[in-house]
Design brief:
Number of helices: 3
Number of strands: 10
Distance between the termini: 26 Å
Strand content: 35-45%
Order of helices and strands: HHHEEEEEEEEEE
Length: 247
């Protein structure tokens, strides 16, 4: 059952996000960010009136039609609130869905899994002038390459702490729903805004076939190539059913 104080909790999350990201370069940013992490870690799916849904429920929420047939998007977004300094909402991933590798230019971010299991791969961009460990693979001819440090690939569940990204650390990530549908509460600061240089860019990892049965160890240097948004990925919208947030 939802906790009686959940409305005040989600309101406190939003207020703390506003305080935290209003001055991301201020002396209290670290302390404010830690407080926001603590609050975000308390949020549960049932507190936002959410529950895992099968294909039929997903189709009904999206207006009918068979899943994965061009009607039901693989990913949906529930908007909660947005200011100039941050946005907050819920992403819902259908079983097997993937949010492709993408960046968050100059942005901080936090995500908390509400239900299901996510596999999140995180990367950092590397300076263009530094010497590369290896040249780009031949497949890189499709576009300009970007060097990156593949830092981690981890599974997150509702029992996991929030996953964080900053302008310089774990700023590129790919999110996969593992073994069923999944949902996560997402905070981005500041929000995407192409007019202010914060557009979303998608990338593809350039790697040849593995030389061994085990995947290469992490962290490791990799090459990426920027790509258009994948044809089989798009994000739909759904109403947010949880407690109201006012800022």
């Amino acid at each position: 059952m939802p906790r009686d104080n959940m409305a005040s909790l989600i309101q406190r999350v939003a207020r703390q996000a506003r305080i935290t990201f209003r001055s991301p370069a201020g002396p209290a940013f670290g302390e404010n960010l830690h407080r926001l992490q603590q609050l975000l870690d308390e949020v549960r799916a049932e507190d936002l009136h959410l529950a895992p849904r099968g294909p039929s429920a997903a189709a009904a929420a999206a207006g009918g039609g068979p899943p994965w047939a061009g009607v039901v998007p693989p990913v949906s977004y529930m908007h909660i609130c947005e200011t100039e300094s941050f946005s907050m909402g819920v992403f819902l991933l259908r079983s097997g869905a993937c949010i492709p590798l993408h960046d968050h230019p100059g942005m901080n971010g936090m995500l908390k899994v509400l239900y299901g299991t996510l596999r999140i791969a995180c990367m950092d961009t590397l300076p263009a002038g530094a010497a590369a460990a290896a040249p780009p693979p031949p497949a890189a001819g499709s576009g300009p390459c970007l060097r990156a440090l593949f830092r981690s690939r981890q599974h997150y569940t509702p029992a996991s702490p929030p996953c964080l990204l900053s302008p310089h650390t774990d700023n590129l990530h790919q999110i996969d729903a593992v073994d069923g549908p999944a949902a996560f509460l997402d905070i981005l600061a500041p929000p995407y805004d192409p007019q202010h240089g914060r557009d979303c860019h998608y990338y593809r990892l350039l790697e040849g076939p593995p030389a061994a049965a085990e995947p290469p160890a992490l962290p490791r240097e990799v090459w990426l190539v920027e790509t258009p948004q994948a044809a089989d990925f798009w994000c739909g919208g759904e109403p947010y059913p949880g407690p109201r947030v006012c800022l």
